[in-house]
Amino acid sequence: MLLAGLPLLALLGLVGVFAFTLRNPSTDLPSxxxxxxxxxxxxxxxxxxxxxxLGRSDLIGQISVVNVFASWCIPCRDEHPLLxxxxxxxxxRLFGLNLKDEEExxxxxxxxxxxxxxxxxxxxxxxxxxxxxxxxxxxxxxVRGDGVxxxxxxxxxxxxxxxxxxxxxxxxxxxx
Length: 176
Hints:
It is found in: Cell envelope. The protein is α/β, with parallel strands linked by helices.
């Protein structure tokens, strides 16, 4: 009788683990890039954005935030006002990496919601995003002035993560 109940107990245990994981997702996922130099990349501009393209050399000199986004990404639309607020509150260099998007759609996205980015790289084939270890949009990276990645956030920013990011930015700016 005890042996017959073991599969049921194992199933209930797995359901419990999955339920806990779904209710408490980790958004600050480990990355092989954290505490390592950002990868080499050079991307053309998203022409309609009116800002230059993006490459690794743009990350050198002062702290910056790299945000991976796409017009087809619903969570990106939800997080966008927080990126605008981040730029207004901190003045941090904010860079966009536009993943596998159509120029027209990405331009319309920025026309509608505003463009807080200092530069945007059009990653049309997704290669640069792979180098960054991105597996979904949006993702946000905080990069130190020497080009070393400090943090990675997977998923859209929310109010708490925005405040946490601002604290990290201010701490790094004070240290520079």
